[in-house]
Write a structure and sequence with these properties.
Mean pLDDT: 82
Radius of gyration: 18 Å
Helix content: over 70%
CATH class: Mainly Alpha
CATH topology: Growth Hormone, Chain: A
Structural class: mainly alpha
CATH architecture: Up-down Bundle
């Protein structure tokens, strides 16, 4: 069990889940405010799931042959943060559908690779504890996020919520990027990091 890598995966996933939880129950209310009816909401959610489902299959093959899982997960986290800020530009059913579809792509890049990496680094020792910790933490921080998300919207606005969510997910991305340095097959990445540090 590689505790350093597991810590990176657990903390970054907790931040992701916390930010996602802030918006989850409020999605329908937001969609209604930008002119989305019931059908628009279902199409946006379906778009998310279709893109996520189809892309997950492709990502699985790519991560096995062409690109490291560590790189894909960081791309997924970064895209998710970017598209969360993209909610600030949503003003129609079409733009809502596009953002949701993009988030489906981000989830496809990040979530299956996260599970694969987590399984790899837990190994066979105490993996029940590790998966229990991951699942329990995910539920706990999502619950906190739901409450805080409602508070932010009630006191400020959806725009304020998206800024807070985006900043949290940006933090998750930066923290997750540490896996590029500590993960398997990271020798070349370490050279890049040392070069950047020296240049800085």
């Amino acid at each position: 069990m590689d505790r350093k890598i597991l810590k990176i995966l657990l903390i970054s996933n907790a931040l992701w889940s916390f930010a996602e939880g802030m918006f989850g129950p409020l999605f329908a209310l937001f969609a209604d405010r930008v002119g989305g009816n019931v059908l628009a909401i279902t199409w946006a959610w379906a778009g998310y799931l279709v893109v996520k489902g189809l892309t997950s299959i492709v990502v699985g093959k790519v991560s096995d042959k062409y690109m490291s899982k560590e790189t894909l997960i960081v791309f997924g986290f970064a895209l998710n943060a970017l598209l969360t800020f993209g909610y600030l530009l949503v003003n129609s059913r079409t733009s809502l559908f596009l953002v949701e579809s993009g988030l489906g792509l981000a989830a496809a890049l990040a979530l299956p690779t996260w599970s694969s990496l987590f399984a790899r680094y837990t190994g066979k020792s105490k993996n029940g504890w590790a998966w229990g910790m991951a699942s329990g933490t995910d539920d706990f921080v999502t619950a906190i996020g739901i409450v805080l998300g409602g508070m932010v919207v009630s006191k400020f606005s959806f725009s304020g919520l998206f800024v807070v969510m985006g900043l949290i997910q940006l933090s998750a991305t930066l923290y997750q990027a540490k896996i590029l340095y500590y993960g398997n097959g990271a020798k070349n990445n370490k050279k890049v990091f040392r070069g950047l540090r020296a240049a800085w």
